[in-house]
Design a protein that fits this description.
With 272 residues, this protein is α/β, with parallel strands linked by helices. Helix content is 40%, strand content 16%. The chain has a five-stranded parallel β-sheet with strand order 2-5-8-1-9. A two-stranded antiparallel ribbon has the order 3-4. Strands 6-7 form a two-stranded antiparallel sheet. The two termini are 39 Å apart. It holds the Pfam family AAA_5.
């Protein structure tokens, strides 16, 4: 786990890069992994900044980014490619992983545990010193160039016996554990993303702390930084804060009427 310590934003950050506020040495570790051709695994709850972090680092390193949202039906062929009928001819079409290898880009597999088992079989040769992508259907053996990097992520909180990463797969990656930022940093992120004042963002983060304390009891998952940004954005656009919180911090978290009523009461007490 990378030590989560508050730091300033990268001093040479380009305004065109996707915004990301470092809270530890994660940017340094990503750059080291890229430079030394090491695959990277990101672990952490939904909406804590993993995907934004990868987008930021791809822009920072000047590499093309191919993002794949993994799901139950995702197969190895979806990643590597397949033969398609085009204009009366059968032609090979690269998948996102193959394109990333050919281009020397970054391939990011988001929530990799959701994909089918054959996906891990495909990525294993890319995660050791071979850095190899075999394409059985074309007979090619693609050697990843120095600019290629494989990054995967998952949410350990959603793991169960049928959906997890085998130890033999996890141990092929350098790993970073993500969590929600410290309150002061999270308020800074909200302000930067929404334009809402720091004081009001701090109040939203205070509310988030109370909601996250309910995880495992009344709620299956705590409120994400992403949802807080949505709420701050609506408030900045002129919506009353209790109404914005209803749409972003109550409805997305539960369908249970009693729990939603309790959340509304907690919001009322926080902002009264």
């Amino acid at each position: 786990m990378v030590t989560r310590i508050a730091t300033r934003a990268t001093p040479d950050a380009d305004p065109d890069w996707p915004y990301y506020r470092p809270v530890g040495r994660e940017c340094e570790l990503f750059e080291l992994a890229f430079r030394h051709r090491l695959p990277l695994l990101l672990k952490g709850p939904t909406g804590c900044g993993k995907t934004r972090f990868v987008a930021h680092m791809a822009a920072r390193l000047g590499r093309p980014l191919h993002t794949v949202a993994c799901h139950d039906d995702l197969t190895a062929a979806d990643l590597t490619g397949r033969h398609l009928l085009q204009g009366g001819e059968t032609r090979w079409s690269d998948g996102p992983l193959t394109r990333a290898v050919r281009e020397g880009g970054i391939c990011y597999l988001d929530e990799v545990v959701e994909a089918r088992r054959d996906v891990t079989v495909v990525i294993h040769p890319l995660t050791d010193d071979r850095r190899l992508l075999p394409l059985e259907r074309t007979g090619e053996q693609l050697h990843a160039p120095p600019g290629f990097m494989l990054v995967v992520s998952y949410n350990p909180g959603y793991q169960h016996v049928l959906k997890n990463l085998k130890p033999s797969t996890r141990q092929r990656f350098v790993s970073i554990e993500f969590d929600f930022p410290p309150p002061a940093v999270e308020a800074e992120v909200l302000a930067a993303e929404s334009g809402l004042s720091g004081e009001r963002c701090a109040a939203l983060v205070n509310l988030a702390g109370r909601l996250r304390a309910l995880k495992g009891r009344d709620l299956d998952e705590g409120v994400s930084t992403r949802l807080l940004i949505y709420c701050a954005t609506l408030v900045q656009a002129g919506m009353p804060i209790d109404e914005a919180a209803q749409y972003t911090l109550v409805e997305p978290l539960s369908d249970d009427p009693d729990i939603r009523a309790a959340l509304r009461e907690l919001i009322r007490m926080t902002f009264s």
